[in-house]
Write a structure and sequence with these properties.
about 240 residues
């Protein structure tokens, strides 16, 4: 793994961000922690899923870097359990290169992003920064509304008929972006660029997040009335 990270301090929320690195390969974990510290983050470490769950509960981090292949409890199950109580905690999955099934499985249980092994530590830090920027407080702004759905980006919450929705960071940002551009056909490339901050990548990331979002905002996810598929292009949010 190669790359360099400028020794700059970054602040999100109040002070240094706290990142929990979960990987049973101590060599990888050590390199990642070193890069994170040099980039201005505080990094903690857990080598198995059971320990990670205990740390997340007792001392919640700002973001989790989570390997899928872990002893005790695997990364997918860790993500699933975390999402049951902390839908807002950003999670970046580490997956094996070429294992598309693992990447999709990670997204389906609620991961916000993924990085494939072997990876550049600098790329991982950039991905972490991108996710943390999207979870940092934003200036107060007018709430977005589409039918019974309301998104308050300043409060980082979304409601449907007044009931709060359990959305991950990416799901909330994706929904907000769609609502900011009603009745506009948005390509998957555009959504990846504007919501994820990626200029390239696997477009199944967008597809999986749209499917998860529909399950939470549509009366019938199999026949969506709000988030429509525009065949050959991407998606369009239609106002009721």
């Amino acid at each position: 793994m190669t790359g360099t990270v400028e020794k700059t301090r970054r602040t999100y929320d109040a002070g240094m961000s706290r990142v929990l690195v979960v990987d049973d390969d101590e060599t990888i974990a050590t390199v990642v922690r070193d890069y994170l510290e040099r980039a201005g983050h505080h990094a903690a470490y857990a080598r198995d899923g059971r320990t990670a769950l205990k740390r997340i509960e007792s001392d919640p981090p700002d973001l989790v870097v989570l390997d899928i292949m872990l002893p005790e409890v695997d990364g997918l199950e860790v993500c699933r359990q975390v999402r049951a109580t902390r839908p807002d905690l950003p999670i970046i999955m580490l997956t094996a290169l070429g294992e598309a099934e693992d990447r999709i499985a990670g997204l389906e249980v609620g991961a916000d992003d993924y990085v494939t092994k072997p990876f550049s530590p600098r790329e991982l830090v950039l991905r972490i920064d991108s996710v943390l920027r999207r979870t940092a407080p934003v200036r107060p702004d007018r709430a977005l509304t589409a039918g019974s759905i309301t998104v308050d980006r300043a409060a980082r919450r979304a409601t449907r008929d007044g009931v709060e929705l359990s959305l991950t960071v990416r799901e909330l940002e994706l929904l907000a972006y769609l609502m900011q551009h009603p009745d506009v056909a948005l390509s998957r490339d555009q959504l990846m660029r504007e919501v994820w901050g990626w200029t390239f990548g696997d477009q199944s990331t967008v597809t999986v997040h749209i499917r998860r979002l529909r399950e939470k905002v549509e009366d019938d996810p199999t026949a969506p009335a709000l988030i429509k598929t525009v065949w050959g292009i991407g998606y369009r949010l239609e106002l009721p």
